[in-house]
Each structure stands twice: as structure tokens, then as C-alpha cells.
Amino acid sequence: MKNSRIQILIFIFITAISSCISDDEINQGDELLGSWHHGNPYEIGGEYTLTFYADYSGFWGDMSFFPPPDFEYAIGGAASFSWSTTNNPKTLIIPDMKLNTPYSINAEGQLILNNFRQGKPFDKIE
Length: 126
Description:
Blueprint: H1 2-18, H2 23-27, E1 34-39, E2 47-52, E3 57-66, E4 73-82, E5 84-86, E6 91-94, E7 99-105, E8 111-113, E9 123-124
């Protein structure tokens, strides 16, 4: 009987300790997962898309069109990257892009990267 009480206490202790892990540690950066877009390919600055995957890899792409009469061509680029986040303040780090910027999700659900693309909001598309 005494052994079963000890086993129950050990079970409760382990359960209590494991439930103390912060949700921020488990879900750090989860709010970034998916694809984010801003801009218009026919406007100055073009369009830009960032995609964040759960394995901390990602993909960026941009595109700008220059219609006639001035020019008639398109330019763009794309590449993969690795990413991470920190808290207090929330910071997005993309070493491949030399990006280290505070970020937030505003009331409209848009991603704001303070020091990237003039802080213009990105809309979630996936």
C-alpha cells in the first residue's frame, strides 16, 4: 500500500513538473508559420512574400513588373533561408538575409517586421 502511494506521488510530481514548461518555449514562432505577402508587383517596391515552415526553414520571393511605355520587363528573386525567434522583445532572426528585427502581429492579423520593407504590414495568405 505504501509503495502505491509513493508511485502515485511520483506520478503527480512528474506531471506537475512537465506541465510547468512554458507555452512560449513549445510554440515559439508558431504564429509566423505559413506564407505572408505584401505589396503589388505593379507598384514601386513590387510584391514580397515570406514563407515560414515549422522546421525553421523558409522561402522568400519578390517580383516587380515594369509595364510599357517606359519599360516592359519583370524582375524578381527567390531563395530559401533558416529562421529563429527570441522573446522579450519578440525578434525574428534570418541570418541568410542579415535580418534581425522586432516583429509583431497587429489587430488585423498582419505581420509587422519593424526594420524590414519599411515596416509595411504583411498579410497572411496560407
